[in-house]
Amino acid sequence: MGLKHRIKSGLRGLYARALWGSGLHRLVDRLSRPRLLVLYGHCVDQPATNGSLDADMKISGGRLGEILGALGRSHDLVTLGEGLQRLRSGDARRSMVALTMDDGYRDNLHDLVPLLERTGGRATVFLEGGAVAARELPWLHALGWLVGRVGAEEAATRVASRLGDAPGSPAGVTEAGALKRRLKYEADPGPRDAALAALVQEEGGDPAEIVDALYLSHEEARALAAAGPVEVGGHTAHHPVLSRLDAAGQEEEIAGGAALLRDLFGEETPAAGAAPLGSSGHVFAYPYGRRWDFDDRSPSAVRAAGYACAVTTHAGVNHATTDPYRLKRWPIHDGTRLHEVGTEASGGFELLRRLGIDLVE
């Protein structure tokens, strides 16, 4: 973290502690316009099902319960669709918090749903169509499995030998994060995915077993969609960096992911299409979600696929006037500070933004 970010982080913490600790956040909340804070993560930490995933993708059940419990005392806990519906209709009696989870991991049913039932929370889960519906191993998990077996440097060497002189070849890369970034943003997705799939099998891995260990099965996905506190949404077919695709490629990924979910759920739980706001299936999350991971063509493709809104991974809060295809979300994990996320939920950081000061982004 650079000096500028360390200073901003320090100021953010001091401001949030002062506002949250003094109780002034309640006054700010009452004086501010209704808002929707969208939280996002991937997993409730459960070694049996997601122990191989990076720590920043997980949050312990205790920590998540603490955050939802604290925010639920002053905010309505809603799904993303419910929150947007209330904002648009003017029916937001008080501000709201929506929890979202990306990709569709097994803990979302077995650990998240019971936690929501205990805390009175609600959640939106964005399902990766290729992994959940088609049982295809995503390249990131193929890479993670390979790195876990042979190490980052050897994995880079093997992938480079497959890709040759193609753009994004990771020859000479020695660190796992750098390897992931190189393959994510520079390699051609087709050859990259084929190389990783072949290397997993060469090393004795079974792609189907890896998918089954991590992702919801068809039956589990249907059970999740039927759970009272959960709505499901789309997350493309193969979780690509959309901005690296042309318009046709983006449409294929977004609409194709929606089609896979429609095939999985049938008519009982719609996935996009003509689903009305507030019902399962109408919501979408951009893969990775930073402004460089999608582009100006992406919202049109999302809208054309039948989705009513789309979320990014840029922090902030959402209002009735927020672009529904560029909604903001706040990340949560075990390092999340309650006073900071609480200050955002209460409009404290939004107050500074209106003054031209952004301590979050």
Describe this structure in words.
By secondary structure, the chain is of the alpha/beta class. The chain has three domains: 48 residues, no CATH class; 163 residues, TIM Barrel, CATH 3.20.20; 72 residues. The chain contains 17 helices and ten strands. The strands form three sheets. Strands 1, 4, 5, 6, 7 and 10 form a six-stranded parallel sheet that branches. The chain has a two-stranded parallel ribbon with strand order 2-3. It is globular and about 60 Å long. The two termini are 13 Å apart.
Descriptors:
globular, alpha/beta, about 50% helix, TIM Barrel, two-stranded parallel ribbon, 3 domains, about 350 residues, 17 helices, about 10% strand
Identify the CATH homologous superfamily of the largest domain. Glycoside hydrolase/deacetylase
Tally of helical runs: 17
CATH top level of the largest domain is: Alpha Beta
Structural class: alpha/beta
- When the domains are counted, the total is 3
How widely separated are the two ends?
13 Å
The rounded Rg comes to 20 Å
The CATH topology label of the largest domain is TIM Barrel
What overall geometry do the principal axes of the alpha carbons give?
globular
Major sheet attributes: 6 strands, parallel
Strand content: 5-15%
Tally of DSSP β-strands: 10
H and E order: HHEEHEHEHEHEHHHHHHHEHEHEEHH
Mean pLDDT figure: 93
- Unreliable sequence segments: 273-278
Named at the architecture level, the CATH assignment of the largest domain is Alpha-Beta Barrel
Task: Report the helical percentage.
Answer: 40-55%
